[in-house]
Design goal:
The complex is a heterodimer of chains A (about 270) and B (about 350). Chain A has about 270 residues and is mainly alpha-helical. Chain A is built from eleven helices and no strands. In chain B, the strands form four sheets. Chain B has a six-stranded mixed sheet, with helices on both faces. Chain B has a six-stranded mixed sheet with strand order 13-12-11-15-21-14. Chain B folds into two domains: about 220 residues, P-loop containing nucleotide triphosphate hydrolases (Rossmann fold, 3-Layer(aba) Sandwich), CATH 3.40.50; about 110 residues, OB fold (Dihydrolipoamide Acetyltransferase, E2P), CATH 2.40.50.
Chain lengths: ~270, ~350
């Protein structure tokens, strides 16, 4: 018995190292005083971080990414709520088909979506590439994620709650704002965070659909061609790593709190 | 408070879900101020009927009037009814006070008026001191009281209750039964109560509609149902009933080798297969004589009374006999030969 537990421990440690080791090396090299990301480390420095403040094109890309990610999060959540409500509340004719259809962007390679969107935007609609085209592409891939987060939340509560609200004199619209939305709020917040993170990270669609302005992942990729820019990229990566970790932890805490407040004991 | 004025009029209601007909020929009135129960096994359509009254479901055919007003096309939020749901449906994000005041927000009330009505409702259901308690901190009985207060505070013309006591333990359930009855007398509102528990329905109701397979089998007072069941299914559903099979000829049942018995003919029992129905407490046991004879196969001493099972040769099921403890001090031993007798008027002749 003891031997088996030991083996499991070793497996678990190897697993975690494999998952997070490379990621954790990034801040180590970012703080290293040297151009090449190799051992042995040369010395401690913060100059890679301080250099970022002076890098205007990077800051611009960061602002673009932030703006896109916020709009995409809000837009895909706003679009996801009615879709999730319709699919979880009503037995729609062909509801299962509609649902799989809306989940399709999850399984289509993003390069296929990117190329298809590029052709549609440029050749068929004749729209100039801009941050707007990037954002609309992001909404397309975020929507299925936001919808599934919202649906799992909406399916969790007793249908009698909404019936009771109607019975107590609320119109469906009032029921939504007084009952459904407050109860779905943890799901709404998770959906916003999910949309934000996916959009902020996204590379392929941004790469194809961005015009003259660029997003942070695309900017980072363009910098990798120059070896002397690598420490700066590592520093930026470290900051993003910290930011994403904080966001994910916040999302999980909110989700757990929501789950606790809406499962009142039995029934 | 009960008057003969109907508050609810159901006219030839039919409800279908796809190809499945769950309600048919529903046609009766519920009177102003009465405690009315819909009693039946699960799947008999009683909850669907209640949901039609509430406006959550629409009937496929027929019409419904509440307080003289046709309800076709009137949504749940504009009906003079309120419902206590089986799961109570307490809003988990609101506290007791906010739950109870939920429906008042949709009425044109001033803040002090609304607060006064919430406070009144809280004391009516004995939740004093719990106004700011969160929904998830409440016990089953308290949740039930919140659900009741939340519905009553809107002052509906009809209160609809969907098995509100089924989730409570036995002791609490009996306590709540008495309270519910007292509450109904206090507020004077018509209660329509759905239950599968015949004892509960008998205890609480002014009148009961017994339902099976989407139809009303019989609608009567508790006494009327117990003393005068119109058919075998009602007789078996309400209380315990001994049934002796045979051929019914008007007020006489020919039970073959067991003999011919007289009784009161009920419903449409004539010329065909029928039953003589006898309540356990209407039977008497003696060491000999009587209309039937058998042996005691089971005896349960309950203090105030003794329940016997008497096996009669020629009868598939043993007869249940309930004997008042005053009547027979010592009782009968297991295996004792006994005669079973009853008054001529005690038996009912029922159709199949």
């Amino acid at each position: 018995m003891a031997k088996r537990i030991d083996l499991l421990w070793i497996y678990a440690i190897l697993f975690i190292m494999f998952l997070y080791g490379p990621v954790l090396l990034m801040p180590v090299f970012a703080l290293n005083d040297g151009t090449f990301a190799t051992f042995p480390l040369k010395g401690f420095t913060l100059k890679n971080f301080s250099a970022m403040a002076a890098n205007t094109s990077m800051i611009l890309a960061f602002q673009n990414s932030l703006r896109i990610a916020v709009s995409v999060a809000v837009l895909s959540t706003a679009l996801g709520i009615p879709a999730a409500l319709a699919l979880s509340r009503f037995r729609l004719p062909g509801g299962a088909g509609v649902q799989s259809f809306m989940m399709l962007p999850l399984v289509i390679p993003s390069i296929v979506i990117a190329v298809a969107l590029l052709v549609i935007l440029l050749k068929i609609l004749g729209i100039q590439l801009s941050l707007w085209t990037v954002a609309s592409g992001h909404v397309l891939i975020c929507l299925p994620f936001c919808m599934s987060v919202l649906m799992s939340r909406l399916e969790g509560f007793d249908p009698a709650l909404e019936e009771a609200s109607g019975d107590l004199g609320c119109t469906p619209w009032q029921t939504f704002w007084r009952l459904t939305f407050p109860l779905a709020l943890p799901g709404v917040i998770s959906s916003l965070l999910m949309g934000f993170i996916i959009s902020f990270d996204e590379f392929v669609i941004s790469f194809f659909l961005s015009g003259t302005e660029t997003t942070l992942p695309v900017y980072l990729f363009s910098q990798l061609r120059f070896p002397n820019k690598l420490p700066g990229v590592l520093a930026l990566g470290s900051l993003i790593l910290v930011g994403s970790t904080v966001l994910v932890i916040a999302a999980e805490v909110i989700r757990k709190r929501g789950a606790a407040s809406s499962n009142p004991g039995d029934l | 408070m009960t008057s003969d004025t109907p508050i609810i009029e159901l006219r030839d209601i039919v409800k279908r879900f796809g190809s499945l007909t769950v309600l048919r020929d529903i046609d009766f009135d519920i009177r102003q101020g009465e405690f009315f129960s819909l009693l039946g096994a699960s799947g008999c359509g009683k909850t669907t009927l209640l949901r039609i009254l509430a406006g959550i479901e629409q009937p496929s055919e027929g019409s419904l009037l509440i307080d003289g007003q046709p309800m076709a096309g009137v949504p749940a939020n504009r009906r003079p009814t309120n419902m206590v749901f089986q799961s109570y449906a307490i809003f988990p994000h609101l506290n007791v006070e906010e739950n109870i005041g939920y429906g008042l927000r949709n009425m044109r009330l001033t803040r002090p008026e609304a607060q006064a009505r919430v406070a009144e409702a809280i004391s009516l259901v004995k939740l004093d001191g719990l106004a700011t308690r969160n929904a998830h901190q409440l016990s089953g009985g308290q949740r039930q009281r919140v659900a009741l207060a939340r519905a009553l505070v809107c002052r509906p013309k009809v209160l609809l209750l969907d098995e509100p006591l089924s989730a409570l333990d036995k002791k609490l359930r009996e306590e709540m039964q008495l309270e519910l009855r007292a509450l109904q007398r206090t507020v004077g509102i018509t209660f329509v109560f759905v239950t599968h528990d015949q004892e509960e329905a008998l205890t609480l109701s002014d009148r009961i509609a017994i339902m099976a397979e989407g139809r009303v089998l019989q609608l009567d007072t508790p006494r009327g149902l117990y003393e005068g069941p119109q058919n075998r299914r009602v007789a078996e559903f309400v209380g315990t009933m001994n049934l002796i099979p045979g051929r019914a000829h008007g007020a006489v049942l020919d039970a073959g080798a067991l003999g011919r018995f007289e009784g009161t003919a009920m419903g449409s029992a004539s010329g065909g297969e029928g039953f003589l129905a006898l309540r356990p407490e209407k039977l008497r046991l003696a060491t000999g004589g009587g209309k039937l004879s058998g042996t005691v196969s089971e005896a349960a001493y309950l203090g105030d009374r003794i329940h016997y099972r008497v096996t009669v040769p020629g009868l598939a099921a043993p007869l249940a006999v309930s004997v008042n403890n005053l009547q027979d001090g010592a009782g009968f031993a297991l295996g004792a030969g006994v005669g079973v007798d009853w008054d001529a008027g005690a038996g009912l002749i029922l159709g199949p």
